[in-house]
Design goal:
Elements (H helix, E strand, L loop, with lengths): L3 E8 L2 E7 L3 H18 L4 E6 L3 E6 L6 H18 L3 H4 L4 E6 L9 H8 L3 H9 L3 E6 L6 E4 L14 E4 L3 E5 L2 E4 L4 E3 L2 E5 L26 E6 L2 H11 L1
Parallel strand pairs: 5-13
Antiparallel strand pairs: 1-2, 2-4, 3-4, 6-7, 6-13, 7-10, 8-11, 9-10, 9-12
């Protein structure tokens, strides 16, 4: 597979950078590097930058720049990246996160449903979920929602046929072979197995320009989970208040 990075104009103010690398890890690291550079070097000229598993979508600020000079800036950025990233999979390492989860039916209403469907005990389901690390392969659907894979095949579970109207912020879910955390309250159809008492989105007005992420998780990051007792969970919840 040949390394490729090409620019496609989707509409008047949206650009898609397609990325193809020899391995998934190299691809995700390259995507993370492109998104980081776009957001740091071209920040005045963009409204949004969304990394995914095979691309980076960029929404231009058409009040500050036209497409032609913006494309030239992107081409230069990609050329510079190619010179500095001869081995992207090792040259860039995504951040590593270790996140707490309280696995309990009171906050994980689908725990028993999945365990019954897979013919395993709830405790075994929980252990299989937190016993491996996950790679963030895309961010989307709602700001800060990180798609992570892959869960143990024995606990993979299709999305719910009827999505919930409201899923609480911090809910940890499984959909097919992926797992994820709802960064804020929203509708959703993932199977909820627990709750993460940690804020994943920072208020924009509290960010230090160019030094902090709005979203804690981004493409190329690695996430592992660890289980909480009820008392540990309540203590962490209290700290968030």
């Amino acid at each position: 597979m040949k390394t490729q990075r090409c620019i496609e104009r989707l509409n008047d103010n949206t650009v898609l950078i397609h990325v193809t690398e020899q391995t998934q890890q190299a691809q995700l690291c390259t995507i993370a590097a492109i998104a980081d550079r776009v957001q740091s070097q071209l920040k005045p000229h963009i409204r949004n930058c969304v990394p995914a598993s095979t691309s980076v979508m960029i929404e231009m600020n058409d009040l500050t720049i036209r497409y032609a000079p913006f494309r030239l800036s992107l081409e230069k950025l990609l050329e510079d990246l190619s010179r500095t990233l001869t081995q992207p999979a090792t040259a860039i390492q995504g951040a590593q996160h270790r996140l707490p989860v309280y696995y309990h039916p009171s906050v994980g209403p689908d725990l028993k449903t999945i365990a019954t469907a897979k013919n395993i005990h709830v405790d075994e389901l929980i252990q299989r979920h937190y016993s491996r690390s996950y790679l963030v392969t895309a961010v989307g659907f709602t700001p800060g929602f990180a798609y992570m894979g892959s869960v143990d095949p024995s606990i993979a579970m299709a999305r719910k046929h009827s999505p919930r109207a409201l899923v609480p912020k911090g809910s940890v879910g499984i959909a097919d072979t992926q797992t994820g955390i709802y960064p804020r309250q929203s509708p959703g159809g993932w199977n909820i197995i627990g709750h993460c008492p940690q804020t994943l989105l920072k208020p924009i007005n509290q960010l230090v320009p160019k030094t902090e992420r709005y979203c804690s998780l981004t493409v190329g990051d690695t996430v592992s989970f660890y289980p909480l007792s009820r008392s540990e969970y309540l203590d962490l919840l209290a700290e968030l208040q």
